[in-house]
Design goal:
The complex is a heterodimer of chains A (278) and B (438). By secondary structure, chain A is mainly α. Chain A is 74% helix and 0% strand. By secondary structure, chain B is of the alpha/beta class. Classes of the chains: A mainly alpha (278), B alpha/beta (438).
Chain lengths: 278, 438
């Protein structure tokens, strides 16, 4: 009986320690967001001090940020870019992974290897040819020009490939016996069964696109076509960063993605766990 | 239910297609708008000032004011992202679609002339017209955009020199007289140590890390050193005066008079009223003034300090304008625009709204331009006086020039913040840099 009590106490302590650790980690994760929010309400005199609360809450930084940058327009542009890229990358990845796993055809291994190799090519090697091509196509200064070279993603194809590969062949054969067409097998049989993988990958592709800075900044000069990441950069110069307005703009820019995260919390976490990215 | 989902999907798809088309339509309209419908020559101006929130208004005003007074030229400003600007210019050049007027750093004249077919201003405007425009320009700034052939390919535009800013309240608290002149690095060390003893931070020379090397060059030239030989074929990091300048800087840090901060940390500490002295670009001045006003402390400024027995030699940071169009009509239009933005009117806007130095110094005494502004901003006179001792911020030649600058920055940062032997570190850096020279 005594041993049992000790063991219960031990478990109690262990749980307490675990919770303490988790609370510390939560604070560690939440603190930058908290700091961003309170800094956005601080006046210029307080922006560099370490107080956890501003002496008085000022909305001046928000007024300045909204006056200088079209946050709403940039949010729409960023949503358009991120959703388009995620949907198109997902669509091309599904078809490529399906083709590579469903049929054996000459060169399929070579194609798979080439996909893997393109993933290793840095953007610096491809950006000038891509840029020149897009300019010649008339997509300079257009958000569509940002999307076109990102319509397919080697990462997405390589990520979906194992899910398609591990799908039971017997089920596909059963579908074929039921006279299902190739698209029928894909849309009615395979996709409903690997839905969670596809959705979680889609979320990850969306977040990657949302955070993209370099390529949109290359293509877009017109502020009306700019994305949020470009807008945030405008509060930083070589000489000085306007931290107050930058924090205010960052709060406004992160609101839609935070709301989305709250709505799709489970799926977002699942996607991060599944694809091993934090 | 399925039908509803399908309709919703179709509606969403339609919305996205419309948005995409909208994006493209905007572009098409822009292109159409750049035609010469009203008989004016249309040119584009690629400038990073338009992409910086605090400078956007001034940059747009310059463009709007020019457009309002010109009957023959219309300029469209294009915002350049500082991080991707070089890559974009290179890509545009490769695509055959360059902007007509481009803003570039003043240490990149060689790179631009070597890699892009820039016309010289003397050829576009004609020698007489060019000389006439340059009358009244600060003498030492006239040559900053010249190439080896003696012609001007980049016209200095936004410009600043390094200054020593200090917090008079912290000086008083440390028992120092803020009105006593701070002239030499020995004075700086003395003040830094007194500030440190009073529990404040001393000085920071904001030229560390991976930033630009313009202020490091100012330190070196001020001690009589150099970074390259006269014909720019060899780097001279082991020059005794060059090593001496860095050794003095290392001593400032070792003694505790200089903070062991990154430049950003020191800048933020100074803005918060916790750092005694900051050696930095005068382009920061308006930000420092407003931080001091709202923080309730007194800001003072002194010229870039000198080494004992020598005159200080400030360098320039900042940018110039070059013409990238190969079309003679657009080149002429670009010259008209550049003439305007570097005129007395142009510098009145640049200085009063962006905080850069007026490269036509006389306008600070002219009622029509900056006289009243200069009375409220007396530091500008200290800054202008330094132009007489100005040394060009040298860019290292060749395609690896930027890498050599970064190497110099990193080596100096290592030297000043560690106990390493400066001479031997500079020797290693010199060997590496020499291998990168063309």
């Amino acid at each position: 009986m005594a041993e049992l009590t000790i063991s219960k106490r031990q478990i109690h302590w262990q749980n307490g320690l675990k919770h303490l650790l988790l609370i510390l980690l939560c604070v560690f994760a939440i603190f930058p967001i908290y700091w961003m929010v309170i800094s956005s309400f601080k006046g210029q005199t307080e922006i560099f001090n370490n107080s956890l609360l501003p002496s008085s809450f000022s909305a001046d930084n928000y007024a300045y940020a909204l006056e200088q940058v079209d946050i709403l327009g940039m949010t729409v542009n960023t949503f358009f870019m991120a959703i388009s890229q995620a949907v198109l990358q997902l669509a091309t990845a599904i078809m490529a992974a399906y083709a590579l796993t469903r049929w054996k055809f000459p060169g399929s291994r070579v194609i798979y290897t080439l996909f893997a190799l393109t993933w290793l090519v840095p953007i610096q090697a491809t950006m000038i040819p891509n840029y020149t091509t897009l300019v010649n196509m008339g997509f300079r200064d257009s958000i569509v020009g940002v999307i076109i070279p990102n319509m397919a993603s080697a990462f997405a194809i390589l990520s979906l490939y194992p899910a398609f590969k591990s799908f039971p062949k017997a089920l596909i054969e059963a579908g074929m016996m039921d006279k299902m067409s190739a698209p029928g097998v894909l849309f009615k049989l395979i996709l409903p069964n690997i839905k969670s993988s596809v959705v979680s990958l889609g979320i990850l592709l969306f977040i990657n696109s949302w955070n993209e800075y370099f390529w949109p900044a290359m293509i877009v000069s017109d502020q009306g076509q700019a994305t949020l990441q470009i807008g945030l950069r405008s509060f930083m110069s070589a000489e000085l960063t306007s931290w107050g307005p930058l924090m205010a703009a960052a709060v406004l820019a992160s609101l839609p993605i935070l709301i989305l995260y709250l709505l799709l919390q489970k799926q977002v976490i699942q996607s991060f766990v599944k694809w091993g990215i934090k | 239910m399925k039908k509803r989902k399908l309709v919703a999907l179709l509606a969403a798809a339609a919305m996205f297609v419309t948005m995409g088309t909208g994006c493209m339509t905007t572009k098409a309209t822009d292109s159409a708008g750049s035609g010469d419908g009203d008989g004016k020559t249309e040119i584009t101006f690629y400038t990073y000032n338009l992409s910086i929130a605090s400078q956007k208004e001034a940059a747009q005003k310059l463009i709007d004011d020019f457009n309002a007074q010109s009957d023959t030229v219309h300029v469209t400003g294009v915002a350049a992202d500082v991080m991707t600007m070089q890559t974009k210019i290179q890509s545009d050049y490769a695509a055959g679609q360059t902007f007509d007027v481009v803003q570039c750093a003043l240490n990149q004249v060689g790179y631009y002339v070597d890699n892009y077919k820039l016309p010289a201003f003397e050829d576009v405007a004609g020698q007489a017209a060019f000389d006439e425009h340059m009358e009244g320009f600060a003498e030492n700034a006239k040559t900053l955009g010249q190439y080896r052939d003696g012609k001007t390919y980049v016209l200095p535009y936004t410009f600043s020199t390094p200054m020593l800013y200090y917090n008079a309240d912290l000086f008083r608290d440390a028992g120092l007289d803020p009105d006593a002149p701070i002239e030499t690095w020995d004075d700086v060390k003395e003040c830094g140590l007194a500030l440190k003893a009073a529990g404040h931070e001393g000085v920071q020379i904001t030229a560390t890390g991976d930033g630009y090397d313009w202020l490091i060059q100012a330190m070196i030239y001020s001690n009589g050193g150099d970074v390259m030989n006269e014909d720019h074929t060899e780097v001279t990091f082991t020059d005794p005066n060059t090593v001496g300048a860095i050794s003095m800087w290392q001593d400032l840090v070792k003694s505790g008079a200089h903070t062991n901060y990154t430049d950003t940390e020191a800048q933020e500490a100074f803005l918060a009223g916790n750092q005694g002295m900051l050696v930095t670009t005068a382009a920061l001045e308006s930000g420092l003034i407003s931080a001091a006003e709202s923080g309730g402390w007194e800001l003072k400024a002194a010229p870039f300090p000198s080494f004992e027995g020598k005159e200080s030699v400030p360098t320039n940071s900042g940018s110039g304008l070059c013409i990238m169009s190969s079309d003679p009509e657009k080149q002429a239009a670009a010259w008209e625009f550049i003439k305007y933005v570097t005129s007395a009117e142009g510098y009145t806007t640049i200085t009063s709204m962006m905080g850069y130095l007026p490269l036509r110094p006389d306008i600070v005494n002219d009622e029509r331009y900056l006289k009243s502004w200069a009375e409220e901003h007396p530091f500008v006179h200290t800054n202008l006086a330094q132009l007489e001792r100005l040394h060009r911020w040298e860019g290292f030649p060749g395609m690896n020039g930027g890498q050599i600058g970064t190497l110099l920055n990193q080596t100096v940062t290592k030297c000043i913040f560690t106990d390493c032997d400066v001479a031997s570190e500079m020797q290693t850096a010199q060997s590496q840099a020499q291998d990168l020279m063309p």
